[in-house]
């Protein structure tokens, strides 16, 4: 037995002291010895965006496990620090802690644009990269853009242009009356602003707009109003669990007007169920996308979680893979080197038909988008299989940039 | 034509009021007799909805409508006996902390078992469809819901006003000490009232599950509205709560018609107005213990 401990009691005392030190006092000392690369992940797990954050977390965990299994980043294992971002203020303080105290090399995640903005400011102050995986607001890529922030999630303009093309082919724009339901916070306002611009440019008419508080659960008063306004199409620019409740109650009232929405996440349609899902919606990725890497991602996700991934799982998974690939290619975790590499137009497999790349002037990932509509009842195989995936937008012979906002539309001075 | 649209919103507001009523009535009952503000009330509402999703596969919607509130009511027995009972005489802040903490624990447990994603749950096919009254549109399901609310309301009124049980509860609300002197042990009545209260919340959960998203935070979403209704109605008043629920429903409907962004805020404005004019609420009784 070791001579330094004279009695069993002393040994126990020393042991418990060390244990207490590890618990409270000096975690930094203990972790400083580890050779792991730390990645910070923040996303809302509670509140009306919680359902999406849960998928994001499942996605990034899968990415980290896959990366570690194939040798990690530059031979070092990746350690994921993942937490509930709650709101912009909490998100900022957690981001700061992850970067300054825990030593994270970069930050990923978020869904709420306001929280994303807060995190990006902390990241810029610390000269570390933040990849936004779920905040859609155009402003994040425009007025509020910064050198250290990249966007895997598509901008609102991209969603609007994707669905807009589908609506043009359905003849639902020119001379048609649109009725907007807008989520009453930054995301919804931005979306309706961009959508109204599209509508005006293509000769449509606004029949009405109602701003819906994010905690509204009852839509009957809005539905009664819509019925009186008799629009050609009802446009949902709602967010989070709002979309689920809206779909359920729209189908309850059985109104005859067409439905479409510019903001969409698959999990929310799943929550509404096959009985209630209706309309045409844009989606950034869907588990039926036909590409080999996408299929491998879906198969592994099903194995781990017993259900298919939705678009937010794809976003956080992809951001992690992009970060790992960049760092491995460069053999460096240095933020400035990674930024230079991404700005030079490095191509990435984004689990779709065509590769994607980041635009150098606003750091937006250029990529294909899709639309979804309800499947025929006969074709539905399981409770997640009632969304019919449309063709990729833009089509194969077009530039990926045609759906993205131009410099004039959304200026960013990096 | 405007006036017709307006009228339609008023009628629709009456319907919405029905569901506020179910949640608020239980809250008011527990508050009046026990003096405990049950911040965990929303959790029982959420459990009622999740219970409906699970049970419908086995017993259908009708079965779930009965069974889910009963099971949640049984949970209420445990809640009252193991936790709530210890806090009737204590500083009110302790019971507030207890039930607030419990609400968070319950929400997280739901999240751990069923996940954050809303669960699929739809109106049973036999109740789907709309009924047109003149030019007004009503969903068949909501009319059925209104029927259930009215039936529950009548049953509770009869229970409180026409039975020996109700007499003790009403007496206990005003003078628990006198009731004790008469040799009646209020503890059993309190358990029964809590069971009734959380059972009503669960019933509301089942009824709302086909309309709104069934997700872990659904309980937190409705809690403030329920409190506003209780405060407007006044403590200890059955009809006060009924009137307040209908008022809140109608005011929200009308605000949605004129200025939707204020639809959530409208009920708070109503509450402020009522409290300015009648500090005890519309029909609030003077309860000596709380003065």
Describe the structure.
The complex is a heterodimer of chains A (414) and B (291). Chain A has 14 helices and 14 strands. A five-stranded parallel beta sheet of chain A has the order 2-1-3-4-5, with helices on both faces. In chain A, strands 7-6-8-9 form a four-stranded parallel beta sheet, sandwiched between helices. In chain A, strands 10-13-14 form a three-stranded antiparallel beta sheet. Chain A has two domains: 32-155 and 289-366, 3-Layer(aba) Sandwich (Rossmann fold), CATH 3.40.50; 157-287 and 369-403, Response regulator (Rossmann fold), CATH 3.40.50.2300. By secondary structure, chain A is an alpha/beta fold. Chain A starts with 7 loop residues before the first helix and ends in a 25-residue tail after the last strand. Chain A has helices spanning 8-25, 27-32, 50-69, 88-100, 113-125, 138-141, 156-169, 186-201, 220-229, 241-253, 266-272, 292-305, 311-330, 335-343, and strands spanning 37-43, 78-84, 106-109, 129-132, 149-151, 177-183, 205-212, 233-237, 258-261, 281-283, 357-358, 365-366, 370-374, 387-389. Residues 1-5 and 17-33 of chain A have low confidence and may be disordered. With 291 residues, chain B is mainly α. Chain B has a single domain (2-290), classed as ABC transporter involved in vitamin B12 uptake, BtuC (Orthogonal Bundle). Chain B is built from ten helices and two strands; from the N terminus they run αααββααααααα. Chain B has helices at residues 2-34, 41-83, 92-114, 140-162, 164-174, 176-181, 186-208, 218-233, 238-258, 263-277; strands at residues 130-133, 136-139. Chain B has a two-stranded antiparallel ribbon. In chain B, strand 1 and strand 2 form a beta hairpin. In chain B, helix 2 crosses helix 3, helix 2 crosses helix 8 (218-233) and helix 4 packs across helix 5. Chain B is globular, with a radius of gyration of 19 Å. The mean pLDDT of chain B is 90. Chains A and B meet through helix 3, strand 7, helix 9, helix 10 and helix 11 of A and helix 1, helix 8 and helix 9 of B.
């Amino acid at each position: 037995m070791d001579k330094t401990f004279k009695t069993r009691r002393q040994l126990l005392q020393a042991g418990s002291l060390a244990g207490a030190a590890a618990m409270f006092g000096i975690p930094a000392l203990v972790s400083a010895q580890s050779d792991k690369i730390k990645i910070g992940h923040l996303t809302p797990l509670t509140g009306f965006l919680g359902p999406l954050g849960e998928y994001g977390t499942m996605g990034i965990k899968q990415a980290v496990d896959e990366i570690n299994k194939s040798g990690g980043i530059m031979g070092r294992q990746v350690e994921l620090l993942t937490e509930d971002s709650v709101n912009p203020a909490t998100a900022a303080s957690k981001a700061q802690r992850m970067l300054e105290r825990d030593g994270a090399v970069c930050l990923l995640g978020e869904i709420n644009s306001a929280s994303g903005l807060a995190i990006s400011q902390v990241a810029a102050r610390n000269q570390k990269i933040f990849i936004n995986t779920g905040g859609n607001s155009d402003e994040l890529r425009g007025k509020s853009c910064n050198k250290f922030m990249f966007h895997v999630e598509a901008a609102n303009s991209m969603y609007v242009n994707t669905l807009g093309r589908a609506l043009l082919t359905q003849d639902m724009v020119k001379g048609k009356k649109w009725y907007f339901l807008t989520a009453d916070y930054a995301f919804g306002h931005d979306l309706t602003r961009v959508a109204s611009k599209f509508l005006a440019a293509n000769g449509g008419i606004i029949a009405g707009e109602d701003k819906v508080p994010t905690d509204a659960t009852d839509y009957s008063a809005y539905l009664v109003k819509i019925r009186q306004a008799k629009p050609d199409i009802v446009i949902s620019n709602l967010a989070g669990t709002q979309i689920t409740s809206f779909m359920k109650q729209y189908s309850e009232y059985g109104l005859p007007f067409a439905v479409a929405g510019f903001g969409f996440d698959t999990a929310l349609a799943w929550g509404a169920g096959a009985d209630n899902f209706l309309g045409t919606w844009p989606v950034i990725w869907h588990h039926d996308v036909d590409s080999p890497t996408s299929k491998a991602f879906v198969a592994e996700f099903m194995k781990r979680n017993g259900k298919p991934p939705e678009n937010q799982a794809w976003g956080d998974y992809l951001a992690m893979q992009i970060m790992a690939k960049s760092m491995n290619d460069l053999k460096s975790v240095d933020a400035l080197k990674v930024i230079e590499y991404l700005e030079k137009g490095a191509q990435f497999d984004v689990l779709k038909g065509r590769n994607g790349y980041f635009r150098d002037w606003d750091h937006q990932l250029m990529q294909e988008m899709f639309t979804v509509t309800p499947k025929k009842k006969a074709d539905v195989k399981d409770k997640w299989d009632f969304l019919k995936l449309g063709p990729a937008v833009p089509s194969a012979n077009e530039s990926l940039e045609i759906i993205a906002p131009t410099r004039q539309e959304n200026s960013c001075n990096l | 034509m405007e006036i017709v649209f307006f009228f339609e919103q008023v009628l629709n507001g009456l319907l919405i009021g029905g569901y506020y009523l179910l949640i608020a009535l239980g809250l008011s009952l527990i508050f009046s007799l026990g003096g405990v503000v049950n911040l965990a009330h929303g959790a029982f509402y959420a459990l009622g909805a999740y219970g409906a999703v699970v049970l419908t596969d086995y017993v259908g919607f009708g079965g779930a409508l009965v069974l889910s509130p009963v099971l949640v009511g049984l949970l209420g027995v445990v809640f009252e006996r193991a936790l709530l009972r210890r806090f009737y005489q204590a500083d009110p802040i302790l019971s507030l902390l207890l039930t607030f903490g419990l609400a968070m624990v319950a929400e997280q447990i739901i999240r751990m078992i069923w996940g954050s994603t809303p669960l699929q749950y739809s109106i049973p096919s036999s109740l789907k469809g709309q009924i047109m009254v003149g030019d007004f549109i009503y969903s068949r399901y909501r009319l059925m819901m209104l029927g259930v609310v009215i039936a529950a309301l009548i049953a509770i009124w009869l229970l409180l006003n026409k039975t020996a049980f109700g007499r003790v509860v009403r007496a206990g609300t005003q003078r628990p000490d006198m009731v004790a002197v008469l040799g009646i042990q209020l503890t059993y009545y309190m358990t029964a009232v809590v069971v009734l209260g959380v059972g009503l919340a669960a019933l509301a959960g089942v009824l709302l599950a086909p309309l709104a998203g069934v997700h872990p935070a659904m309980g937190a979403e409705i809690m403030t509205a329920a409190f506003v209704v209780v405060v407007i109605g006044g403590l200890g008043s059955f009809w006060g709560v009924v009137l307040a629920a209908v008022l809140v429903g109608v005011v929200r409907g009308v605000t949605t018609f004129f200025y939707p962004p204020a639809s959530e805020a409208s009920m708070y404005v109503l509450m402020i107005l009522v409290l300015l004019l009648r500090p005890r609420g519309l029909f609030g009784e003077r309860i000596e213990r709380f003065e």
